[in-house]
Fold this sequence. Notes:
- The structure is a single chain.
- 41% of the residues lie in helices and 15% in strands.
- By secondary structure, it is α/β, with parallel strands linked by helices.
- A five-stranded mixed sheet has the order 2-1-3-4-5, with helices on one face.
- It is globular, with a radius of gyration of 24 Å.
- The N and C termini lie far apart (72 Å).
- The site of flavin mononucleotide has 22 residues, from β9 and α21.
Amino acid sequence: MTHVFVPRDAAALALGADAVAAALAGHATVVRTGSRGLFWLEPMVEVETPEGRIAYGPVAARDVAGLLASGLLDGAAHPLRLGKPEALPFLAQQTRFTFARCGIVDPLSMDDFRAHGGLQGLRRALELGPARIVEEVTKSGLRGRGGAGFPTGIKWKTTAAAAGARKYIVCNADEGDSGTYADRMMMEGDPFTLIEGMAIAGIAVGATKGFVYTRSEYPHAVATFDAALAIARREGLLGERVLGSGAAFDIEQRVGGGAYVCGEETSLLESLEGKRGQVRAKPPLPAHQGLFRMPTVVNNLITLASVPFVLAEGAEAYQAIGFGRSRGTMPIQLAGNVRCAGLFEAGFGLTLGELVNDIGGGTRSGRPVRAVQVGGPLGAYFPPALFDTKFDYEAFAARDGLIGHGGVVVFDDTVDLARQARFAMEFCAAESCGKCTPCRIGSVRGMEIIDRIMAGDRVDANLELLRDLCHTMKFGSLCALGGFIPYPVMSALTHFPEDFRALQKVAAE
Ligand SMILES: Cc1cc2nc3c(=O)[nH]c(=O)nc-3n(C[C@H](O)[C@H](O)[C@H](O)COP(=O)(O)O)c2cc1C
Ligand code: SF4
């Protein structure tokens, strides 16, 4: 029977992919894949033909009978026919290093994984040995994709050199940033790549145990990843002798309780140890004293999943693309009020305008773009006047913003930035771990001040107080939750000052 590919990614499931698969069953061999990341076309169904795969989308279960009658299984014409997926502009413009297999392979087939280049990075890592793996990762220029952009090679070198009876690899899959889903897509679409990356990290630093800390809101990712772990053990990718070598490595998955702050690495470690997720003061760094006070690498999922490519293709191939000190690719996640929402993996250096207007196609509502929040709830709001900012850690920092985990959330001209600033303080108050005063108390005071401003009450004096509070939070908070909340607040104030004076204007009129 002809092979038909239907995603099992949570985004596609939410849009009815299971019903589409059920309608196709019996007519074709249905293979469930991850998503290619073109969410506005989900469920996107692909058919194996002599010329390669042909895509159709968005397909609803009620379309299936008509599609079959039109010759779907031969890749025939139909209003939903999209053609070859790799020729779709959204995919053709990407550089897929990390997500090369996602949406193509059956995520739980080790044969498929191997047939599409899986395990080559791990094999090379085993040949190179620990010191040269670290050297290769350092040379690649790979920086942490969790937000801070810290060089991965340096983190691994520090952990490798640290003394400890045991060492750990901890994968941060808490993915709390608004508008982000790259970690989830990888766990659901290509989980063996993460397992391979973690095994390479383990060999590099001398760790035999890894943990993946997954957010509780990802039930499909949790189930797929647990199934992948069982297969990886059976196939010798994990266990006492990784791929028949002398190296041992195994992984356990743990599901978080749903706190944003548990994505902060030390809070995550507390949570993994079974304690309340509260931030630890640094030093000691997790690389020296992390999980159970042992040397620990804490890396974002995408950081770890980028490593197999680096090892398989070589550091030069990875660092050859990018911009400035941001090397390699970033899976950028377009979300919010955007026409073409989805995952766009590309070398650093695209401008924000290119991402939002050319690739994202502007707003879904058709109204003008007014603001874009990049980098999750701690990221700044940028107006179109800053759309020439390049997607790069340093370029965003130079404009008081951050790229975080690569989330780009688009807003049209109906957004009220004073309300968004209030929301930032409200979010901080709800998610604060409570350990330090500027964040615990400051966020509540921040909400109250913005409420007064929005009510038109002594606006100038309260704006001054808000700026002062932001300064205190930025420089006095223990971690980046309280420390970075001033970014969305101050960017709203700087770039959209009129929203904070709406009532004042009404009063004057
Ligand atoms: C409040 C807060 C939330 C965070 N949430 C996440 C998260 O969900 N995922 C993540 O990878 N890093 C998150 N981080 C960053 C981590 O503390 C840490 O820098 C990261 O996991 C290190 O991995 P990397 O070097 O690969 O980026 C968060 C940081 C803060 C302050
Ligand atoms: S800034 Fe907030 S989240 Fe971070 S340690 Fe202080 S109270 Fe906890």
